[in-house]
Design brief:
The chain has about 260 residues and is mostly helical. It has eleven helices and no strands. It is globular and about 60 Å long. InterPro entries: Ammonium/urea_transptr, Ammonium_transpt, NH4_transpt_AmtB-like_dom. It comes from Aegilops tauschii subsp. strangulata (Goatgrass).
């Protein structure tokens, strides 16, 4: 997860910085703000986990990183770096609240299959980033990229006009996604089921694919010595004895991983 998150972070800096299609001031500001927002959001999310749950988690850190990246994307090259810090704080706290608190209290959200919490990390964080861009976009940076004369955020004298444009754009994206994704899923549903049956969901990957996706000792699974070649010693010679004796000789121990 950490390796994947790092690759995602690196790639995100690439396409945010590459959005102007040139090595210019806007591109450099976008790369800087992308990293600052992601780091701030990661730290904010981790601090909230420690405060409310007593310990940090890798999953929480990566979720915070992702919400920071999503939030800064609309205004990566349009806001000052101090504003990227502010956006990172909001990105690490608002989606955290919707995921950890609001989601568990909403009967509708609890019925939605969203294993990766995409609604919170992308929909909530993306809408938040769009609104904050309408508030914090600087006229100097906006003038470099916008073909419309005189755009600026509400905090720079732009009034509510730019925020309204951001909300209108977000509303269009929401409606477009609902309509087009529904049509795509209805088309796919004509050929394959869109959801596994409940009995297969309860069993897990074994039922669907006949193989284990993860084998973590301590989560209820047993290490099956007959499926792993544990009969050879360090020098490659075959050892005698029961599977339990051979595992004990290897120093194998059960590991409990709480996610």
């Amino acid at each position: 997860m950490i390796a994947g998150g790092g690759l995602l972070w690196m790639g995100w800096a690439g396409f945010n910085g590459g959005a102007p299609y040139a090595a210019n001031i806007t591109a450099s500001v976008a790369v800087l703000n992308t990293n600052v927002s992601a780091a701030t959001s990661l730290l904010t999310w981790t601090c909230l986990d420690v405060i409310f749950f007593g310990k940090p988690s890798v999953i929480g850190a990566v979720q915070g990183m992702m919400t920071g990246l999503v939030c800064i994307t609309p205004g990566a090259g349009l806001v000052q770096t101090w504003a990227a810090v502010v956006m990172g704080i909001f990105a690490g706290s608002v989606p955290w609240f919707t995921m950890m608190i609001l989601h568990k209290k909403s009967a509708l959200l609890m019925k939605v299959d969203d294993t990766l919490a995409v609604f919170h990390t992308h929909a909530v964080a993306g809408l938040l980033g769009g609104v904050l861009t309408g508030l914090l976009a600087t006229p100097e940076l906006m003038m470099m990229e916008s073909s419309v004369p005189g755009p600026k955020g509400a905090f720079y004298g732009g009034g509510i006009k730019q925020v309204g444009k951001q909300l209108a754009g977000a509303a269009f994206v929401i409606v477009w996604n609902l309509v087009v994704t529904t049509l795509i899923l209805l088309g796919i549903g004509l050929f394959v089921p869109l959801r596994m049956p409940d009995d297969q969901l309860m069993i897990g990957d074994d039922a669907a694919h006949g193989e284990e996706a993860y084998a973590l000792w301590g989560d209820g699974e047993k290490f099956d010595a007959t499926r792993h070649d544990v009969s050879r010693g360090a020098g490659g010679e075959r050892e005698m004895g029961t599977a339990e004796q051979r595992l004990a000789g290897m120093g194998a121990r059960g590991v409990t991983i709480q996610l």
